[in-house]
Specification:
The protein is an all-alpha fold. The chain has eight helices and no strands. The relative contact order is 0.19.
Length: about 260
């Protein structure tokens, strides 16, 4: 099942790469750091909301499936995130084209960065669901790695960045072979991020089907679950959130 978590890491890494470049290519009326903060707030709100509304109901019915449901919803959110990003990028490129700035690699599209709010919120929701679900999966069902669940999720994000390099190279090869032009340019204005995001939509959809198949046939009964009377470790969760926010703030480019 762990193999299906890799696409989550790939989509998550978009938030620190293409999403920031995309935001930097708008009018700049909303600072990038604000978009990152909104993503973090959404992540925490969704995580808390799921725990308050759904988690206890699911656990009462079948406790061992709670994390699987959370991860599945998060993976569905990854599809929405990439689809929204593709739509917004199409609008940004259209604004550049109408202004005659499409050939300027340093030009900023005359549209508000507020158009990117939905994709950053979707990314935060994905992290709040799939990210915490994956951490809980390792923590609940693998006793020896219980304290390292958040570390596994960070590892997936780092591995996702590496896989993104190969995935983008494949997209570049396909676009050159199929359309005789590259979708990967030297700048965000010279690239076709909208089409690249569509490729991620397809990848996320395929991964959702794979996850649904694997999780439905997964033998939860053979997993050593977390004892019901074992105390939680809130400090680790809070510490992980602090480290995640600090890392994201360091990754924001300075204009």
């Amino acid at each position: 099942m762990s193999a299906t978590f890799i696409v989550y890491g790939m989509v998550k890494s978009l938030g620190n790469t293409f999403f920031l470049e995309q935001a930097d290519g708008t009018s700049g009326d909303i600072p990038i750091i604000v978009l990152q903060v909104i993503k973090g707030v959404t992540r925490n709100a969704v995580k808390g909301g799921y725990k308050a509304v759904f988690a206890k109901r699911i656990q009462r019915m079948q406790r061992q499936y709670s994390d699987g449901v959370k991860i599945g919803i998060g993976m569905l959110t990854s599809i929405i995130c990439c689809a929204v990003a593709s739509s917004v990028e199409s609008k940004r490129l259209e604004a550049l084209r109408e202004s005659g700035l499409l050939n300027d690699p340093k030009a900023r599209a005359p549209i508000s960065a507020a158009w990117l709010l939905l994709q950053f919120c979707s990314l935060g929701a994905m992290e709040g669901l799939a990210g915490t679900g994956i951490a809980d999966f390792f923590g609940h069902y693998v006793p020896d790695s219980r304290r390292y669940g958040p570390v596994f999720t960070d590892t997936l994000a780092g591995f996702g960045i590496l896989l993104n390099i190969g995935f983008i190279a494949m997209i570049d090869y396909y676009s050159r072979f199929r359309y005789k032009e590259s979708w990967v340019g030297d700048s965000v204005n010279e690239s076709r991020l909208d089409l690249i995001y569509r490729a991620y939509v397809i990848l996320a959809i395929l991964n959702c089907f794979l996850y649904a198949y694997v999780s439905s046939s997964y033998s939860y009964d053979n997993i050593i679950g977390k004892p019901e009377d074992e105390p939680e470790i809130p400090f680790l969760e809070v510490k992980q959130e602090e480290e995640t926010v600090a890392y994201e703030l360091q990754s924001i480019p300075v204009r």
